[in-house]
C-alpha cells in the first residue's frame, strides 16, 4: 500500500507565473537555456541475475514486442542495455565534445558503479552527475524510512563511484513523499540540495515552499528550487506509445527543432533534451541528434549548459522568497 505522509505533500499550483510567464535572465542575454540530459541506467535495470523476478521490459529496442520475461536471464534485453554502456555512451560523449558542451547525467548509482571508465570520463569532461536512483526500479510503495534510505544510498554511492556529490535529482519513480524528502536527506548527508527536477509543469525554473518550514521565520526558510524536466522531447518515446511512431531519428529531429524554435522565439525559456545511451546512442538516431545540435549551434544567444549551472544562475538572480501557498500546517513534519 502506498504511504502518503501528509506533512510532506507539496500543494498543486495551477497558475504558476501566469499570462506573462517569467524571464530567468539567462547569462549574456541568451534567449534560451538548453539542457542535454543523459539518463544513464545500464546495469541498474531489472535483471534476474541481480535478484529480480523479471527482466527489464521497459525502454529497450523491441519495446512491448519483447514481452515480459521471468525466471531467467533474457540475453536480448541484456545486450540492448549493454550496447548503451559499451558503445552508445561514448558516441554521445563524442558529440558533446565535438560541440564543446556539457550535459547533466541522470545517473543510476549502480550503473555508474559498474562502469568506472564512463564515471571517470564524465568528471574529466565537466559533465554534471545528478541523482536518478540507486537502481532503475520503482519504489512507489516504500515507507518513509525505506524512502529516505533509498535516497541516501543513491547519493552516497554516486559520490563513491564518481567522486562528486550530486546537487540535483530526478528519480521519476519515487513515492508521493520522495520529492519533499530529498532536501532533508541531503542535509543528513552533510550536503545541500541545489535543485529538484522532479517536475514537468513549466518551461522555466521556480521555487516551492517546503512544508516543514512553514512555522519558521521567513529569513530562515530555504525553500526548494525546481528546474523542470519533460517527457515530450525524451528519446524514450521511440519505445513508447504514443511516441515518435517510427524507430527512425528524422521525426525526432524535427520535433526537437520545432520545440527549440518556439521556445527561442518566446525567449527566456528552458529546453530539455532527455537522452538514453541505448536509444540515442544508436548510430541512426545519434546522427539525427547531431543534426539538431548543429542547428542549435548555428543560432546566436543560446546557452547550452548543465542543470547545476542553470540552478546556480537562477538562485543568484532570483533568491528564494516564500511563495505563500502554505495557508496553514498543523504540525512540523515529524521526519525532521
What does this structure look like?
One of its GO terms (molecular function) is hydrolase activity, acting on carbon-nitrogen (but not peptide) bonds. The chain is an alpha/beta fold. It has one domain (21-317): Glycoside hydrolase/deacetylase (TIM Barrel). The chain has helices spanning 75-99, 109-113, 116-124, 144-162, 178-188, 250-266, 283-297, 307-317; strands at 32-40, 104-107, 128-131, 168-169, 195-196, 206-208, 224-226, 269-276, 302-304. Strand 1 (32-40), helix 1 and strand 2 (104-107) form a beta-alpha-beta unit. Helix 6 runs parallel beside helix 7.
List the topology elements.
Elements: E1 32-40, H1 75-99, E2 104-107, H2 109-113, H3 116-124, E3 128-131, H4 144-162, E4 168-169, H5 178-188, E5 195-196, E6 206-208, E7 224-226, H6 250-266, E8 269-276, H7 283-297, E9 302-304, H8 307-317
Parallel strand pairs: 1-2, 1-8, 1-9, 2-3, 4-5
Antiparallel strand pairs: 6-7
Helix pairs in contact: 1-7, 4-5, 6-7
Which structural class should the secondary elements be placed in?
alpha/beta
* Low-pLDDT regions: 326-336
Number of domains: 1
CATH class category:
Alpha Beta
Task: List the main descriptive attributes of the protein structure presented here.
single chain; 336 residues; five-stranded parallel sheet; 8 helices; hydrolase activity, acting on carbon-nitrogen (but not peptide) bonds
What's this entry about, in short?
GO terms for molecular function: hydrolase activity, acting on carbon-nitrogen (but not peptide) bonds. Residues 75-305 form the NodB homology domain. With 336 residues, this protein is α/β, with parallel strands linked by helices.
Amino acid at each position: 500500500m502506498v504511504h502518503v505522509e501528509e506533512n510532506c505533500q507539496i500543494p498543486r499550483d495551477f497558475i504558476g507565473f501566469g499570462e506573462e510567464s517569467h524571464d530567468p535572465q539567462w547569462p549574456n542575454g541568451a534567449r534560451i537555456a538548453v539542457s542535454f540530459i543523459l539518463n544513464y541506467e545500464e546495469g541498474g535495470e531489472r535483471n534476474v541475475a541481480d535478484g529480480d523476478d523479471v527482466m527489464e521490459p521497459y525502454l529497450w529496442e523491441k519495446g512491448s514486442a519483447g514481452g515480459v520475461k521471468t525466471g531467467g536471464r533474457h540475453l536480448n534485453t541484456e545486450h540492448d542495455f549493454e550496447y548503451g554502456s559499451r558503445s552508445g555512451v561514448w558516441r554521445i560523449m563524442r558529440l558533446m565534445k565535438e560541440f564543446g558542451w556539457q550535459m547533466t547525467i541522470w545517473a543510476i548509482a549502480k550503473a555508474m558503479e559498474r562502469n568506472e571508465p564512463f564515471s571517470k570520463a564524465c568528471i574529466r569532461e565537466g559533465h554534471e552527475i545528478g541523482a536518478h536512483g540507486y537502481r532503475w526500479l520503482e519504489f512507489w510503495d516504500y515507507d518513509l524510512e525505506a524512502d529516505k534510505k533509498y535516497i541516501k544510498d543513491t547519493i552516497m554511492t554516486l559520490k563513491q563511484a564518481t567522486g562528486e556529490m550530486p546537487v540535483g535529482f530526478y528519480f521519476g519513480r519515487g513515492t508521493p513523499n520522495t520529492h519533499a524528502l530529498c532536501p532533508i536527506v541531503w542535509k543528513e548527508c552533510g550536503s545541500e540540495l541545489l535543485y529538484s527536477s522532479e517536475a514537468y509543469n513549466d518551461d522555466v525554473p521556480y521555487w516551492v515552499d517546503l512544508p516543514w518550514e512553514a512555522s519558521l521565520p521567513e529569513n530562515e526558510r530555504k525553500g526548494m528550487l525546481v528546474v523542470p524536466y519533460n517527457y515530450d522531447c525524451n528519446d524514450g518515446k521511440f519505445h513508447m506509445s504514443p511516441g515518435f511512431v517510427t524507430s527512425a531519428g528524422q521525426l525526432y529531429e524535427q520535433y526537437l527543432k520545432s520545440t527549440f524554435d518556439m521556445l527561442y522565439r518566446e525567449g527566456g525559456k528552458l529546453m530539455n533534451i532527455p537522452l538514453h545511451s541505448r536509444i540515442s546512442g544508436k548510430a541512426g538516431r545519434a546522427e539525427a541528434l547531431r543534426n539538431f545540435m548543429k542547428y542549435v549551434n548555428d543560432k546566436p544567444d543560446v546557452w547550452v549548459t548543465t542543470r547545476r549551472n542553470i540552478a546556480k544562475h537562477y538562485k543568484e538572480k532570483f533568491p528564494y522568497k516564500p511563495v505563500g501557498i502554505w495557508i496553514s500546517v498543523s504540525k512540523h513534519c515529524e521526519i525532521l
